[in-house]
Amino acid sequence: MTAHGTRADENADDLDVEEALALVKELPDRTPAPRTSSSHDRSPEGGRSGDHRHDATAWTEARAIAERAPRHATGSRTGYLTPVDMPLASALGLTLAAPLTALTDLPSFDTSAMDGWAVSGPGPWDVRDKGVLAGHAGHAPLADGEAVRIATGARIPPDTTAVLRTEHGRVDDVGRLHATGATRPPHTVTHGQDIRPRGQECRSGDQLLPVGTPVSPPVLGMAAAAGYDTLRVVPRPRAEVFVLGDELLGEGLPHDGLIRDALGPLLPPWLRALGAEVTAVRRVGDDEQALYEAITSSDADVIVTTGGTAAGPVDHVHPTLRRIGAELLVDGVQVRPGHPMLLARTKKNQHLVGLPGNPLAAVSGLLTLAEPLLRTLAARPAPEPYTLPLRDAVQGHPYDTRLIPVAVRGERALPLLYNGPAMLRGIAAADALAVVPPGGARPGEEAELLDLPWASGGIGVCFT
Ligand SMILES: Nc1nc2c(c(=O)[nH]1)N[C@H]1C(S)=C(S)[C@@H](COP(=O)(O)OP(=O)(O)OC[C@H]3O[C@@H](n4cnc5c(N)ncnc54)[C@H](O)[C@@H]3O)O[C@H]1N2
Ligand code: MOO
């Protein structure tokens, strides 16, 4: 183990969440205060005043356009992908496209609810030699005054009138079963006691869950119990990611003006958390012809590009979309960071989300355009909007909405620093993005929060 590794391990022992948060709550003294050309990354506005575009779409409208886009493309009322039958093991996280209707009564036979004895009539009872275990076929009918040992979940023999729990009965020296005083009134057993009758939970044909239900672990269990091997679900939209930029390295330290590709690792799991199946992540470089070929040969439902959205000499996304004859649905959004983001229809049933290259700007585009688009394609429910008061003031952009990484502590959202468009340090410690309207927010002011998919449920839950 290297010296560096040892130190990191030692730190891990005493580095708790609050300490980790302290790393992004306050700017260290060494932070340069003056606004230089590089101050763009730290400036609260996140952009120059001159780059405000009056033709850009308002943030809420951009989200609404992305949500509606698949409906307009297909002419269908819902816009979601054609449903498929999926084995239970593959259906987690998808949405039911058909109601879950019971294929059987549940329980499908009269069942013992307890370990004990199936009894017939009033006691005491003669106990039959052989008991009844769960999963075994039924036994001969009980005669009045007869009892048989029974396990929880076992089918009760015909003519059983009740189940007497193990702890409520006693077998005497001559093999006769007596109800003990634990039952009320003592020595009586109520008719039907501790028997789960067939169809208690549902009858065959009952609707258990409606269309649109997200398939969770209990839904899988319910479906199996109700007799299903496969579920009719809306499949995951297939997404292909094209990472643009000749300056990007796949490994090692930055050098000679080259930097690490942060979006190649960040986007696939995030897209998956938003409901997509990522079929490929390809580095395309700054090559207009390569981008053209990559887009026109893709059969993904959603193409996601990173970088090349602005007006620089190698920003090839706009010219390529023009060459393809794509329909631009959103071309720039009044949001910081991320304002050059775009949404286009490249062909019937295929959309392209153009994310800006700056990493936090790309995250902003992911939540503004990709999230609602994927949500409609996958028929996922919209997240419940909610607000929390901001602990600190957040400086606003004069015209645009700002998305600011926040940590949620108690009932307040704590704005994190390092929220510049090129920075991931704030979002990496965040639970949500706060939506800050033009003009900013005062301390204590309520802000809408966009939850980050893993913040509430844990990574294993949302990346299934
Ligand atoms: N004249 C103007 N220039 C810029 C404007 C503008 O309005 N007028 N907007 C700025 C803003 S805001 C953003 S955001 C960026 C958007 O630029 P692009 O989408 O064209 O992205 P690139 O130029 O390719 O890259 C920007 C920046 O991000 C770095 N980058 C790109 N890809 C990655 C990656 N996968 N991992 C890490 N970093 C990445 C890239 O090296 C650049 O530093 O445009 C501004 N300029
Ligand atoms: O501020 Mo840009 O909007 O970095 O995306």
Automatic annotation (TrEMBL):
Residue span of region Disordered: 1-56, 177-199
GO-annotated biological processes: Mo-molybdopterin cofactor biosynthetic process
Enzyme class: transferase
GO molecular function: metal ion binding; molybdopterin molybdotransferase activity
UniProt name for this protein: Molybdopterin molybdenumtransferase
Signal peptide range in chain numbering: none
Pfam family, one: MoeA_C
Catalytic function, reaction form: adenylyl-molybdopterin + molybdate = Mo-molybdopterin + AMP + H(+)
UniProt family annotation: Belongs to the MoeA family.
Taxon lineage: Bacteria, Bacillati, Actinomycetota, Actinomycetes, Kitasatosporales
GO CC annotations, alphabetized: cytosol
Primary role: Catalyzes the insertion of molybdate into adenylated molybdopterin with the concomitant release of AMP.
Pathway: Cofactor biosynthesis; molybdopterin biosynthesis
Biased composition annotated in UniProt, kind: Basic and acidic residues: 1-10, 38-56
Keywords: Magnesium, Metal-binding, Molybdenum, Molybdenum cofactor biosynthesis, Transferase
Boundaries of every MoaB/Mog domain copy: 240-376
Known EC number: 2.10.1.1
Cofactor list: Mg(2+)
InterPro entries the record matches: MoaB/Mog-like_dom_sf (IPR036425), MoaB/Mog_dom (IPR001453), MoeA-like (IPR038987), MoeA_C_domain_IV (IPR005111), MoeA_C_domain_IV_sf (IPR036688), MoeA_linker/N (IPR005110), MoeA_linker/N_sf (IPR036135)
Keyword RNA-binding attached: no
